[in-house]
TrEMBL record:
SUPFAM superfamilies: Periplasmic binding protein-like II. This is Amino acid ABC transporter substrate-binding protein (PAAT family). Belongs to the bacterial solute-binding protein 3 family. The lineage of its organism: Bacteria, Pseudomonadati, Pseudomonadota, Betaproteobacteria, Burkholderiales. Residues 40-264 form the Solute-binding protein family 3/N-terminal domain. Transmembrane segments: none annotated.
Length: 298
């Protein structure tokens, strides 16, 4: 009798345990009220982009400008912060699957991503696309990439654009680390990457001695904080939008950028000035994002 009972209950227990395991990997909170009630904010950040979101070798913690922004939000909400390190190829699924409450992970705002996620405006940063290559390659123009093998990382919005526009043979690897190693090993003639990230890399002797960023930056695109599409128009979206507005208005983003020795961004300078601009003694951009908000404020 005991054996029969065991056989009957075991599948149910296995199923229940499986569900519990899955739930253990899900953020589960979607609204601002739920996050506050839970007492914890789960934020997805990059774990392989120097200065923006990367794992510190000594502490093992994920640090960088975007983890600092996540901490600022958690502190303002009065909740604990849990960081989830993600790669480029994992970012969107982390939000869609409920693994994180919000995503602050060098995510560029594209029409395709607007269909999948709720991208918060105003944007909090901006970058373009450039090339990291050995000085000996002597690349000068983007058209020089025709039929050349260049590395990138899977999920980057510009992979197809570079292939179609310039005829490059783009090899999209799973992570930034794999792409960088392929460049070091000579398996690629160059690395197609964000110009801000390349600038940070070139501060290190291991890159500065033999490598260069030779091109004019292309495909300049703003970055967005992302949340679940289910929260579109909700209190979490409104809170994050207002937070970014305050960041631009009070110069906080520039302060954090400077604290990480990231090269000053023209985008942040322009946004700081725009959000502090007044017309007839009223804010040009207002105090919130709405259909009448000037495009320059976004």
């Amino acid at each position: 009798m005991m054996t029969i009972t065991y056989k009957i209950l075991r599948p149910a227990c296995v199923t229940l345990l499986g569900m519990l395991c899955l739930l253990g990997n899900v953020a589960q909170a979607t609204s601002l009220a739920e996050i506050k009630q839970r007492g914890k904010l789960v934020v997805g950040v990059k774990k392989d982009v120097l200065l923006w979101g990367y794992q510190d070798n000594s502490s093992g913690k994920i640090i960088g400008m975007e983890p600092d922004l996540a901490q600022s939000i958690a502190t303002d909400l009065g909740v604990q912060l849990e960081l989830v390190g993600v790669l480029t190829a994992e970012r969107i699924d982390a939000v869609k699957n409920g693994q994180v409450d919000i995503l602050i992970a060098t995510l560029t705002d594209t029409p395709e991503r607007q269909k999948e996620l709720n991208l918060i405006t105003p944007h909090y940063y901006s970058s373009g696309v450039n090339l990291l290559t050995r000085k000996s390659e002597n690349f000068k123009e983007w058209t020089d990439l025709k039929n050349r093998r260049v590395c990138s990382r899977r999920g980057a919005f510009y992979n197809r654009r570079v292939t179609v526009t310039y005829g490059a043979d783009v090899v999209a690897l799973y992570s930034n680390d794999w792409s960088k190693q392929a460049l070091r090993d000579g398996r690629c003639a160059a690395l197609v990457y964000d110009d801000t990230a390349i600038a940070a890399m070139l501060r290190a002797p291991e890159w500065a001695n033999d490598f260069v960023m030779p091109m004019t930056t292309i495909f300049t695109t703003p970055w967005s904080i992302a949340i679940s599409p289910a929260e579109r128009g909700g209190d979490l979206e409104k809170y994050l939008s207002k937070t970014i507005i305050n960041w631009h208005r009070n110069g906080y983003l520039q302060q954090v950028e400077k604290s990480w020795s990231i090269p000053p961004s023209r985008f942040l300078d322009d946004m700081h000035k725009t959000w502090n601009k007044k017309v007839d003694n009223k804010w040009l951009c207002g105090d919130s994002i709405n259909p009448s908000t000037p495009k320059e404020c976004l």
